[in-house]
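User: I'm putting together notes for a lab meeting next week and I want to include a structural view of one of the chains we've been expressing. I don't have a solved structure, so I'd like a prediction I can at least talk through. The sequence is below, exactly as it appears in our construct file.
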Amino acid sequence: MPAPSNTLTTDILIIGSGIAGLSLALKLAEEHKITVLAKGSLSEGSTNYAQGGIAGVLDPFDSIEAHISDTQIAGAGLCDPKAVAIVASHATESIQELIDLGVPFSLDNEKPNNHEAGDFPFHLTQEGGHSHRRVIHAADHTGQSVLSTLIKRVKSHPHITLLPEHMTIDLIKNKRQNRCIGAYALNQTDSNIIAISSLFTVLATGGASKAYLYTSNPDTSTGDGIAMAWRAGCKIGNMEFNQFHPTCLYHPKDRSFLISEAVRGEGGILKLPNGKPFMQQYHESADLAPRDVVARAIDQEMKKHGVDCVYLDITHKPASFLKNHFPTIYERCKKIGIDITKEQIPVVPAAHYTCGGIVTDLEGKTSLDGLYAIGETAYTGLHGANRLASNSLAEGLVFAKMAQQSIKNTFDNQELKHKNVIPWDSSGTTEPKEKILVSHDWDELRRVMWDYVGIVRTNKRLKRARQRIRNLHKEVDEYYRQHTLNRDLLELRNLVLVSELIVISAQKRKESRGLHYNLDYPHIHKIPKPTILKPKLG
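Assistant: Thanks for the context. Below is the predicted structure for the 538-residue chain, given as structure tokens.
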């Protein structure tokens, strides 16, 4: 049996240690006691793997209006104009804050033909869907560079308590006040379950791309925040819009490695195995088309020609350019015998980003008092039906700032007191005699999602997926109630629920828009509407 539960008290509990969570922690820590939970190490989440960069208006020839327009076009009519305007307007100052913290962004040593560097020393790249060079980056390891800088800062801050290897189980809710007052967390080092009392709780837990068999995401992307928020009664929106990154490395020795969209931004061309380019058939921007268009095009070409992958060719660029701009990709491919300066890169689409999530307002507030959601776990309305490249890190930064201001205003205007939280009760549970059910259900779930709820969908596939996932949901829930807890079980419990929400949302959308493509509804509705789900609590 696990050790007895205990209680921890904090002003603000932040669940998640990516760019959104750590940025918020640093902003709030000057005045408040902060606790940050991470279910793995602090650097284990998706931010660490973000290669491309952060979008913001940094070029004198660019404009906020252009960034807004590009975002809305990519979002296929479903973006919230207010959310888009907030991110486009505040991204530049958020990037400057990272520069001031010491993030080593790449310098502009070459001055591209369409970009006058002026007094701005950093290199900007252009990615698919962008009309200007506006993506600042640290070579091809932007997320890693940003995250290491933030981690260094939070580790040295006296008001921030860091709890890695703590898997959040569920939120604690005061039903009478309809307010979140904390969370239960499993300490994975000793199996102790902590009841954490907080005045505010912030979900910054990332997306749910591990629902799919093939993904560019790390193992942490299991939709934990979305599942916990749903169980607590929060609204969830637009879960049918799952972005598949067009170019994930296809090789038996190295799976789930992303080939950055910046490779196409710098001239990479997608080709069939016979060397023939094909993207010009699908979009006027060819290889710089939005991600959903590129992913569907690759999927269709693979099925049409019966090939296992397509190829990304950037061998026409100088070797020195590639090694300087894409050092991580160059070295990773080199390890498996691919020299990208001389050889094409085999690629396939893979689940990459969750555009929907926990419904929030423009301050990051959810429909449950005291609970905020920021970053990929949130649905702010920014991305609409498809995310514009490199807007994700910008969203995490900007909405961390919006949430900080909202929380600060509340503290300034209200006297908040901690509520008593009930210790976790693990009585009646036993250690599982075998773990095959968890591993089997995990594998079945991801295959069902890939086969039936992938890049191209049909009514029949969605119906079949819902039936199978409903059975898995019942099975996993029964197992959860009977046995002691561990990370694998908790992640599977969350992922089964989120997968069901994805399917339900997909069934509700009777059209093909952005990332949701249904062969039975190939046309687009004239009046775009988000898909909002609200749980029925007993």
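A couple of points you could mention at the meeting. The longest helix spans residues 459-482. The first strand starts at residue 6 and ends at 15.

User: Perfect, that's what I needed.
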